[in-house]
Amino acid sequence: MLNVALTKGRLEEDTMELLKNRGYGIEEWESKGRQLILQDRKKNVRYFLVKSADCLTYVEHGVADVGVVGSDVMEEYGGDYYDMLDMDIGICKFVVAMPKGKEANYESGHLKIGTKYPNVATKFFKGKGFDVEIVKIEGSVELGPILGLCDAIVDITETGTTLKENGLTIVDEVFDINAKLIVNKASFRIKREQVMAFIDDLKGE
Ligand code: PRP
Is the distance from CB of 3 to CB of 68 less than 8 angstroms? Predict the structure, then answer.
């Protein structure tokens, strides 16, 4: 049996669609409700639905042999696993955004940066030689500069709608993001055949 950790939320629907297109469809997916474990007996695959950072943990600990997770989370948390496949889903990017009209302050002086990704933000601004203070925010990051908690945010944007509707504008691009398939190191040895067959099927080979 191959244990696969899938990231809940934004990436979930695209991952499930891709799996279905590759013959891994599970009937109950549409009606799964709050179920967190789903089994495909035909393919001998068991799926868990987990939060993005936990996907790394499940794979690192070998509870999941394989995980599908965003490269944003991998970059933020690191970890010990094989990064095996770039997927054409979960395409978005990390940007620095500020309230419209405040862009002029971006390169001048001390900046307070609100973000869910303190490691990514710290590395980015260090690379630029900017003097910044990082404020960790857990969600609705766009509120930070509006309410005066921070000057700018480092966050993910996909459609750009959230930034636009909250009067923020992109002042810098950090890096592009996509979903990746990661593999537990021991599983790669012990279940190599099943892991590789799964990867090849997802690649469409
Ligand atoms: C992410 C991100 C932005 C939004 C961007 O948040 O942090 O807020 O999506 O998407 P858009 O460019 O398509 O508008 P998410 O929806 O994951 O929720 P959160 O704010 O609770 O973290």
Answer: no
